[in-house]
Known about the structure:
The complex is a heterodimer of chains A (265) and B (503).
Chain A: E1 3-5, E2 15-18, E3 21-25, H1 31-43, E4 48-55, E5 69-75, E6 85-91, E7 105-110, E8 126-129, E9 150-153, E10 166-172, E11 194-200, E12 212-216, H2 219-236, H3 240-245, E13 248-253, E14 263-264
Parallel strand pairs in A: 3-4, 4-5, 5-6, 6-7, 7-8, 8-9, 9-10, 10-11
Antiparallel strand pairs in A: 1-2, 2-3, 11-13, 12-13
Chain B: E1 9-13, H1 23-27, E2 33-36, E3 41-44, H2 54-58, E4 64-68, H3 81-93, E5 96-99, E6 114-116, E7 137-139, E8 148-149, E9 156-157, E10 165-167, E11 171-173, H4 183-196, E12 200-201, E13 218-222, H5 231-236, E14 239-243, E15 254-256, H6 263-269, E16 277-279, H7 289-302, E17 309-314, H8 319-328, E18 333-337, E19 346-347, H9 348-353, H10 358-371, E20 379-383, H11 389-398, E21 402-405, H12 407-412, H13 435-438, H14 443-467, E22 483-485, H15 490-496, E23 499-500
Parallel strand pairs in B: 11-21, 12-13, 13-14, 14-17, 17-18, 18-20, 20-21, 22-23
Antiparallel strand pairs in B: 1-4, 2-3, 5-19, 6-22, 7-10, 8-9, 15-16
Helix pairs in contact in B: 4-14, 8-10, 11-14
Amino acid sequence: MKIEVDHHSGLPGVFVRVDGKVRINARQLHYRELNNMIKGAAAEGAEEIVVDNVYGQRYIGSGIRRAVNITVHGVPGNDLGAFMDGPRITVDRNAQDGVGNTMNSGVIVVHGRAGDIVAMGMRGGRIFIREGVGYRAAIHMKEYRKFRPVLVIGGETQDFLGEYMAGGLVIVLGLGKKGKASFAARHIGTGMHGGLIFMRGMVEEHQLGKEAAAVQASDEDKELIRPFVEEYAGYFGGDPREIMRSGFLKLFAKSHRPFGGLYAY
Amino acid sequence: MKSYILPQYLVERDDYRCIRCEVCVRQCAFDVHWYDEEEDAVFADESKCVGCLRCATLCPTNALVVRHNPTEHPPNANWTRDVLQNIYKQAETGGVLLTGMGCDRDYPIYWDRIVLDASQVTNPSIDPLREPMELRTYLGAKPDALQVEGKGKKVSLRTRITPQLRLETPIMFSAISYGAISFNACESLARAAAEMGTYYNTGEGGLHRDLYKYGDHTICQVASGRFGVHADYLEVAAALEIKIGQGAKPGIGGHLPGEKVSAEISRTRMIPKGTDALSPAPHHDIYSIEDLAQLIYALKEATHWKKPVSVKIAAVHNSAAIASGMVRAGADIIALDGIRGGTGAAPTMIRDNVGIPIELALAAVDDRLRQEGIRNRASIVVAGGIRSSADVIKAIALGADAVYIGTAALVAMGCHVCQKCYTGKCNWGIATQDPYLSKRLNPEVGARRLVNLLTAWSHEIMEMLGGMGINAVESLRGNRLRLRGVGLSQEELDILGIKHAGA
């Protein structure tokens, strides 16, 4: 085993390379120091970066434009993967607010729950959250040509899911809901004008924003989401066939021009 | 439904002068003019006229006069023509009134109530034609103190200076998005900024790939819609600006209607063609000063701490307290946009009734940051109704580091301020995405006109500085003793922090 202490930190043991894999101990590091080390390692061609003892450091994965694997042990701070363009981040615990904010490409896998505005303004890449998320997930998610962002939420979601949503795909599996078939979130798809939301379970009409509509997902619709449900199960376990057997609701925008008639010209 | 709206303008054609060349017919995207072959005459449907004067300007024989419709409504100080016409329009459509450009109401323009000083006898004035005169301005956070190290001739700066924007003249072009204006108009602004050593601002509509080459003179905006915001966009910019608000529509978002989202706009904003581009009113990751700090540092982190980050707000009642928070949140530049700030489209009621004049906001913000001892930590850039070099120099004396000009720049390119930008039919080729119209603005000519404007203003600023015996614009910044108010109340003078003329 080749262990090499690196110049990225003056402190012994903070930044080491083990068999080409970079290992960073983030304990008591400011996010700027930590991200400098991660960016530095990525710039030098590291393929695997493992960060231990993460306690709320923000912006992990920002400013990197390579498909490097970053494993986070601990709870990363807000804006994990903000403006991210390429990396693949795995978090072994919960994540906070703003996961994948305005993200362009890459993958984020969270083995826990995530806070508010997950996937805000996200344009490409994939995010998988094992459990539930907070408010306003997928707000203003977009899509453009080859960019089609995907957000898979294993558990429940709070209000205003998919607000202003303009594109992309959101899949809410509602796993682990005890005894009740319906979701509790309200104002789902408010201002929605593009993209699709699939929800496994019931959503009443009054829970939808007035710009969104819901139908039972057809078999063809379900084929669209199957690969992502399989990918979810690949990360977190579970039987994708079992999950796919349930009924899904498909939510979509009633119009691509929700406010077209608002003005007097 | 029969419309009760009277034509806003009358088009008068001198039949003796008219040579039936049909220039007016071809030039009007609003289809006001038409030629009748049988009668061999040109007619006008005045109800469609917006008063942009394209036809009158291009008519080779000056046969056209366009004037405000003199028809009088029953005299009434309360129920004026504008009020009645607006009600008719809304009764006929049920829609929110839309308008373009800045507020046209007669709120006081304080620039016109402030006069500048000049040297007489006791300190000599300077002639900028013969003596060095410095307009160069650096925008960005300045350190609290400078530390130097070394001895003798080998002295170097120890303090690390955070990223700065270098302006050769304290005038930049305001944020105007591709979508609100044509590609040719954007290119004109970019080329002029590069030639003059200053900056233009993309607005929130992303940056067209063909304009990346002007990146060193581009401020890229990050607004609530995050349109076209991706790694390349952040990297190519000289600075980034978080747009919280704009003077024309404080507190609300914006809608670029789907019909304006052409293939090129779609490519630049990175959204599907033909869909509405909705900018939410708030950034949904910013609900507090702490959240603002989070986005400021997210942008710094994403661009490796190499670029200054500006935050733009509309001037509102408590701008001073907000600005203090913005500085503490890490903004390197604070951009303030006053009530007269322009727009491609805003609800009329909001444009004309929300926000405060930029002069008062600037004075209040500069005061507050000085009182708190944090004025050095951010530069102040003001926008919203800067019409001349005199406005620029007064703004600098009141405390601004630089100004943004939007409407003035559009006027330089040919805009006649008809306020119909939102229709997308701009006959001057500026506020339109119609290729037939936008090719009327040649970017080379547009850039030339803008360079000429900035050259002329810069020279006028140097003359006024020289007149005050000052040889660097830095020496005037926040120097309110060189300003006096004329006809202002004590309260206005107190807020502006200036004395009345004669005192």
